[in-house]
Design a protein that fits this description.
about 350 residues; 2 domains; 6-stranded parallel sheet; 3-stranded mixed sheet; binds nicotinamide-adenine-dinucleotide; binds zinc ion
Length: about 350
């Protein structure tokens, strides 16, 4: 048995207002002549957070266009732009949702590796460290702040640059930054965490390491989405730690059916990760009966919008594409259904599931 020896984030600072320490935290990582690059989620363009970024010298502030989830072409263009203008940079600091965090990780890696980011989609293909990288989430749930991957849509697949060089050197967990997230978006990203917990805790890969983090994250999700009479600051604090713990849980286990199916939607229709997982999870009673019942209670409690009918009118060819992408996620299926998953999840069964979405 080969045990996973996994690389974690270097430094963690947590607390309301901890963003104010950023200048001090990154100071030792500044290199003469090489700018710090701040990659700010475009949502914050012109908003107060933008003016709090500690720009010095020739530092660069770039707005991350996350209209669509990150693509390898977008990563390559950003890295190329930086290489041409500066040769190298002191670091890349991503401030935003999971998409911006993934972009920051990937651009940092490409500052130290040749070719295209598409060459590194897979496991342990990245051979050199990138530049110093910092992740500062403004939405809670994906676990991208702790993970060893960065999910990118490439020319032929949607797959992460999964490597020991991928985790951030530093993360800044400041729950104040998530305060103004729109209600539905906050729910979709929060449910990504809830679904990570259910898929990890109900999976065949479960062990005490994953369980201890998964149970804590699940408890926090319940406090936030079921017990709190209305959203308050404590909910932001809790959901940020739920995201962290949920990410730690799947780091040593795996996600499951909702993620495997949602990857197909995302590949074909561009459905975003959080909302896609919600659309799928809503239909997964046969796999996760208790989790789905609780999810529906959370949806009903605050009246969130879960779209329906998104696969209506698709062609056979399109269904086949989604099925191919989904069945390609072998470890996810194996975690969810066990070693014999291929005999259980037939193409017909998966087609019927996609038709219900
Ligand atoms: P997101 O980053 O895709 O952002 C969703 C929307 O919310 C965007 O329009 C963004 O501009 C906006 N936004 C961000 N912060 C905001 C705030 N505070 N207030 C208002 N709007 C805000 O959303 P997400 O759910 O955080 O991340 C999903 C992405 O994360 C996907 O690209 C997915 O592939 C990736 N992901 C990565 C991992 C990993 O381990 N690397 C894990 C799960 C998901
Ligand atoms: Zn997820």
């Amino acid at each position: 048995m080969q045990f996973r020896n996994f690389k974690m984030v270097g430094y963690v600072v947590y607390g309301r207002g901890s963003f104010n320490q950023l200048d001090e935290i990154i100071a030792p990582h500044r290199k003469q002549g090489a700018p710090m690059v701040f990659l700010l989620d475009h949502h914050f363009k012109g908003r107060p957070l933008e003016s709090r970024i500690p720009l010095r010298g020739n530092d660069l502030l770039l707005h991350a266009d996350v209209t669509h989830e990150p693509k390898t072409t977008q990563v390559d263009a950003l890295a190329q732009q930086l290489k041409e203008a500066y040769g190298t940079v002191s670091g890349v600091i991503g401030i935003g949702g999971g998409s911006t965090l993934d972009l920051a990780k990937a651009v940092s890696l490409m500052m130290g590796n040749p070719g295209s980011s598409a060459d590194y989609q897979g496991w342990d293909l990245v051979k050199q460290p990138g530049v110093y990288k910092v992740g500062i989430p403004t939405l809670s749930g994906t676990g991208a702040e702790v993970s060893r991957t960065t999910v990118l849509t490439g020319p032929t697949r949607k797959l992460g640059m999964n490597s020991d060089f991928t985790p951030f050197d530093q993360i800044v967990l400041d729950p104040e930054l998530t305060k103004d997230a729109p209600k539905n978006q906050r729910f979709y990203t929060g449910m990504d965490c809830y679904i990570h917990c259910i898929e990890s805790l109900e999976g065949t890969y479960l062990n005490e390491f994953s369980k201890s983090y998964g149970e804590k994250a699940l408890q926090l999700c319940r406090e936030v989405f079921l017990d709190a009479p209305e959203w308050n600051d404590a909910c932001d604090d809790k959901l940020m730690m739920a995201s962290y713990a949920g990410g730690m849980s799947i780091a040593y286990s795996q996600v499951g059916v909702a993620h495997a199916v949602s990857y197909g939607l995302s590949y074909l229709l561009g459905t975003r990760h959080g909302i896609g997982n919600c659309i799928v999870f809503d239909q997964l009673e046969e796999f996760y009966p208790a989790g789905v019942a609780e999810f529906k209670k959370m949806v009903a409690k605050d009246g969130y919008d879960i779209p329906k009918g998104i696969t209506q009118g698709l062609t056979d060819e399109q269904f086949d594409k989604m099925i191919d992408v989904s069945l390609g996620m072998k470890p996810l299926w194996e975690n969810a259904l066990g070693k014999n998953w291929e005999s259980m999840m037939t193409r017909d069964r998966l087609r019927a599931l996609y038709e219900r979405l």
